[in-house]
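for the recovery benchmark. tokens below, seq after
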């Protein structure tokens, strides 16, 4: 099975501050990996390195089997940041227009969009349960709805990998579970490989296939079943304070701080 992402002995520092040390992660095709760890653990830096937003200092990154320096097919990677928490609600664009703009990376900036392209917008919106909102102004939506639209924007170019950085920021607590269910369906039904940075491991532990615990060093990297067998002491060493592993089932479970 091909690896979608592979990091080898990856290290990174900001001036004298070492934020990543010898990180080796492999994400196979079709996986749903959650990266967890305390604030300042290097999660965002790792994402920026994978997305080519930071220059490698030490180690290697391979995307779809290619060295990142030679990788050109960036349209195969969709990225969703913590946009919903800071989005300008007065932005004058419809949901349809926001998602359509996601095609510029694949087709170019000055493109005449054809009927087939518009059909892809509706397909992407349907995949995240937002098709009926296509003609609503983006600013009229809730934070969770906006985040679904941004995921549709990332999906419209038909990526094979979707990277999400704390996607539930701005999502109401009662809607978090349905949001993660949507991501799980994108993974299982659409066959999209997902890489997710989250603090909600207790909520999503029955959705992901793999977990990586990061705190400058990679303290754990394995499948979800192995993660649930970690001792509380083992997790506490990662987080730097007491963490308790709760019994896992389909409604509750995961990590308690």
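predicted aa per position
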């Amino acid at each position: 099975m091909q690896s979608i992402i592979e990091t080898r002995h990856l290290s990174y520092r900001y001036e004298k501050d070492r934020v990543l040390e010898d990180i080796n992660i492999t994400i196979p095709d079709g996986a749903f990996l959650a990266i967890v760890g305390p604030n300042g653990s290097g999660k965002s830096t790792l994402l920026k390195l994978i997305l080519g937003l930071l220059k490698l200092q030490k180690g290697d990154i391979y995307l779809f089997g290619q060295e990142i320096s030679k990788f050109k097919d960036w349209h195969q990677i969709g990225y969703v940041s913590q946009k919903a928490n800071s989005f300008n609600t007065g932005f004058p664009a419809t949901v349809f227009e926001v998602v359509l703009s996601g095609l510029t990376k694949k087709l170019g900036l000055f493109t005449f969009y054809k009927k087939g392209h518009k059909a892809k917008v509706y397909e992407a919106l349907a995949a995240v349960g937002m098709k009926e909102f296509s003609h609503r102004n983006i600013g009229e939506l809730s934070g969770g709805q906006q985040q679904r639209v941004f995921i549709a924007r990332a999906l419209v170019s038909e990526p094979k990998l979707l990277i999400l950085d704390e996607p539930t920021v701005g999502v109401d607590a009662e809607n978090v579970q349905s949001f993660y269910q949507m991501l799980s369906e994108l993974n299982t039904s659409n066959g999209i490989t997902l890489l997710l940075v989250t603090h909600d491991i207790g909520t999503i532990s029955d959705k992901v296939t793999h977990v990586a615990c990061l705190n400058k060093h990679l303290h754990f990297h394995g499948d979800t079943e192995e993660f649930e067998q970690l001792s509380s002491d083992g997790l506490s060493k990662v987080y730097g304070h007491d963490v308790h592993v709760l019994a896992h089932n389909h409604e509750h479970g995961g990590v308690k701080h």
